[in-house]
Amino acid sequence: MQTVRRLSRPSRGILSGCLSLSLLVLPLAGCERQPSQTANPTPPPSSATPMPPPASASVSESPAPPPTPEEHAEQLAKRFIILDGHVDVPHRLFTQQDEGKPVADISQKTDEGNFDYPRARAGGLDAPFMSIYVAARYEHNGAYKHAEELIDLVESIARKHSEKFALAKSPAEVRANFQAGKISLAMGMENGSPIEGKLPNVEHFQQRGIRYITLAHSKDNHISDSSYDDRHTHKGLSAFGKQVVKEMNRVGIMIDVSHISDDAFWQVIALSKVPVIASHSSCRHFTPDWPRNMSDEMIQALAKAGGVIQINFGSGFIDDEARKQSSKLWNVLGGQAKAKHLVHGTPAYSAFAEDFWKTHPIKRATVEQVADHVEHVVKLAGIDHVGIGSDFDGVGDTLPIGLEDASAYPNLLKVLIERGWSDEDIEKLCSSNVLRVWQKAEDFAAEARRSTP
Ligand SMILES: [Zn+2]
């Protein structure tokens, strides 16, 4: 989700009667050691990590000291595939292009934004899902065309910098790219508006490489209701949206339940034959009554169906006070933008919003709080249902202290190591949980192809 996008949220107080006391108590409540630690009596990190051989054969020399949690985190970030469910760099680059500004070369270090090749490499990021983000304003107004433009843009990055990046359309391609030392660019479409009411477009976007679709974004669309929209147009999914879910199963596109309303979520869970993901959502437990995050019941149902929630790093998703501050500021910003006749989703709006947030900072969450969300999911549903969905380049200057950009994943791993996580569990968080769901979507589609002559 992007800073400017969140502004499209209806100007209303989302929180009613939120508990200031919970702010003090809830983040601590998520800090228990997760069950997997006791279930997995994994040896301490030192024995799990290959150690360099002793400098000489002398038995009198003391062995090399075990790695510190920081060193161990760095090693794991390099050893494991890190897959991030949501990175908004295509929108960042498209906006620059649209504004007539020089477009950043993300194969090199860039001064702005949260993602580029050097920072991804430093953080051990191997497979960011590039968000093909189509703002709600495109519904019935050029959504298909805009999605095509963004897909073209991602393809052009992979083509121009083929020594650093490669497209990835399957878990096997992610693994092959990892072996080849390249960063995989997978694609997920944020908002189903580009389907434009035509079922064959689902398969079209599958063929173009889209591997998940977030059914709606900030407003109800022709497929699904949005968590940010209180009209409840379809009371969940539209009749066409139900067909879209089945078609996504058939062609092998994962269903992303981030952004959709609770009713739509429950209907997806009942309808989908394949496990689903939340590509960039966090736990409502820490942000009571905020429907953009997932309730405990929803997380448990998602997990029971085999799915994964990929935790969003944005401070407003992680910390209740930050969210309350940002809710108030969205209203202020919305009013100011309206007074200036700025249309949401346009470059002028983006530029105004960017300046606004620079001068109206909100409380920043911490990497430890992000770990609390991760552990809350583990406590509710076990280790097999949590992943990472940073929302880098999508949440402006609201990233937590210690998770400011794509170089920072080892900081999160370090906190989990210090809390006693095994290497095996860290690998599940980093990618293997989501790769499992992705593979299931691929397998289901392959089977559907076999059984349809
Ligand atoms: Zn989003």
- N-C termini distance: 40 Å
Might you state the CATH topology name? TIM Barrel
Largest sheet, in brief, is: 6 strands, parallel
Low-confidence stretches: 1-58
Question: Which distinct ligands sit in these coordinates?
Answer: zinc ion
Summarize the structure in words.
- It is globular and about 70 Å long.
- Residues 1-58 have low confidence and may be disordered.
- Strands 1, 2, 3, 4, 5 and 6 form a 6-stranded parallel sheet that branches. A 3-stranded parallel sheet has the order 7-8-9.
- It has one domain (70-319, 363-451): TIM Barrel (Alpha-Beta Barrel).
- The chain has helices spanning 3-6, 20-29, 35-39, 45-48, 69-79, 89-98, 117-123, 143-160, 171-179, 200-207, 239-251, 262-271, 296-304, 315-318, 320-339, 347-359, 367-381, 409-418, 423-451; strands spanning 82-87, 125-133, 165-167, 183-190, 210-214, 254-256, 277-281, 308-311, 386-388.
- The protein is 46% helix and 10% strand.
- The chain has 453 residues and is α/β, with parallel strands linked by helices.
- Helix 5 packs across helix 18 and helix 17 packs across helix 18 (409-418).
- It is built from 19 helices and 9 strands.
- Helix 9 (171-179) links the parallel strand 3 and strand 4.
Q: What is the structure about, briefly put?
A:
The chain is an alpha/beta fold. It has 19 helices and nine strands.
